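Lab channel / #folding
Pinned by the channel admin:
"Please post every new chain as: sequence first, then the structure tokens as a reply. Keep commentary short and put observations after the output so the thread stays searchable."

First post following the new format, from NK:
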Amino acid sequence: MKFSRLIGKTEKIAEKYERGRRIKPDQLAELQHLLNEKIARYESRLKADTEVKDRAKLQKRLRVVRAQLQKTRDLQPLD
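Reply from TO:
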């Protein structure tokens, strides 16, 4: 999934939660799985030799995706 769509999906779920609506656990788990895949992909691309400009962009995106993953973890119920 593209970076922007993935971030948009995370924001949409977080917005639903803030409005007091319940979030389906399977929907949250799927989103976390996609975020983890994106993190792994970015980390592997960083390990490969890339240009300085590309590395900076990847590091920035990696920070954003990790923050989104943390946001989804905060949405999980504390059963």
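NK: Residues 52-75 form the longest helix (24 residues).
TO: also worth noting, The chain has a mean pLDDT of 90.
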